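Entry:
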Amino acid sequence: QAQLVESGGGLVQAGGSLRLSCAASGGAFSTLGMGWFRQAPGKEREFVAAIGWYTGSTYYADSVQGRFTISRDNAKNTIFLQMNGLKPEDTGVYYCAADSPSRLTIWKPDSDIKLNQWGQGTQVTVSS
């Protein structure tokens, strides 16, 4: 089974941009969708964005709508998260996950939904 590996995190000033990548590699990979989640210090992990693998339909949390853009490259089994207009409250560890968009968008830490795969995370820090 493929592993999900995130990259692209770093330190950026408020108002800046970052582009995260999540690649599935090292084995067979098949999914209906992929998504991004984040976890700020002392807070629960939360949904950020998701994309349908075959439809290309996109879904966003209200807090990032209009600032973040999720996209995919099916040939490379990779998704991206373009983050513009970053704010200090966007700071956290960003994780990618693979599952259907319907499950990704409603997942919460205390739900019964167990997503198929998670990456190891990449740190994003936005300074004020």
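The chain has a mean pLDDT of 96.
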